[in-house]
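Problem: given the chain below (465 residues), write out its structure.
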Amino acid sequence: MDMDKFKHGNKYVDIVRSVTADELTAAEGINEAYTNHKCMKFIPASGAATRMFKDLYTYLENREETPFIRRFFENLHHFAFYRDLVGDENKMDAGKRDQADKAKIIDRLLTSKLKYGNFPKALIKMHAYENTTATPIDEHIFEGEQYLDPEAVDLHFTIAPEHEDLFNDYITGLVSDKPHVAITYSFQKGETNTPAADMENEPFLLENGEVLYRPGGHGSLLENLNDLDADILFIKNIDNVCHRSQVEDTIQSKKELASVGLKVKTQIDSYIKDLKADDYDLDDIETFMKETLNISLKKELTKEWALYFLNRPLRVCGMVKNSGEPGGGPFVVDNGDYLDLQICEKSEIDLTDPHKQEIFNSSQFFNPVDLVCFVKDYKGQKFNLMDYRKEDRYFITEKSYKGRPLKALEHPGLWNGSMHHWNTLFVEVPESTFNPVKNVNDLLREGHREATDDSIEAKANRVIV
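Solution.
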């Protein structure tokens, strides 16, 4: 019962150590053969842009001149939406804008003109080019054209129902001259909504006596992922895009992740066929499991156990150096009978335990949500991804409803507990491939601007260990 989960609270993951270079899989070049398989890009894109403009909304309320607000207006002309926002007739020197001018500009951005406050993040103009601008949707299509099958660029977005008309209007004009691009979309399924609880862990009741149900977090999207017909799924968040002048690292790393996965998947399938034919070497398989898949058994490997571990979905996860961004990371986890690799969120770790806190603080890598997933078995049949979720890796968070505090229940995270029983490889990718946009001023970061000679030289000098 869902309500029992509130009473039991979050279940902690037993992390043993943070992932180091010893657990990483090396990228060994590119094998374009992965494009012979049916590839699709899966982009969670239901998020509204409201939180992206939180500081601007606050300014409208209190007119407080914070460093954030100053930076926004001092660099207003650098934003891709600048020309749409102010128009030629309204341009003025940043130093001459008073509070009324600033409030008017913010209102035009969020409400009266561009209406970005009602938009999904997917449709915000983020990048400027010589003769055009680009939204995250544009950039994801451009990326896909570089590393998916060039003759069949398939992208699937998950969107919010209230944004469906905006999304369709935008997509229709976008792909009319791109017959090789196919875009589909879906909504988070209503049946994945979860009940809320009050602070005493009893059902949270609305004024009419009914229980409040809320969206169950990004783990709910496992069902959407499971519905797709593809051999290889590339997963990346909607706001993690970069300026095309800086996209080469992203293209290269995506190809490398897919190539790594194809090589390991081919070996896994070969071992499974040997096991099915009773012509196998368990010592060889155990070595592969330990050295390649980073699965360390605490008991003797049998044929049955070998089949259990090998015949599962495979994910190859790009990891960046930990630079303090909020989010989860890669850890070695004790599952009782074996150790393996998992992506764990901070809330899944018992930080009251000094040893666990020390492990968490020692994290060298960070999860940017950059996955390539192999979701067909050795016969080429789809895995039922719902069978590989660890149900007790759910999340309980505190929220509010009309001023009333409540506890919210979220399904195991899409790349956390929802993929707990997958085989996992971690590959280091360049930091330049991670360019999230959590607030509007993030668009002023290097990855969202035209590359300069200095930035190109810096990338050329960067070495991935």
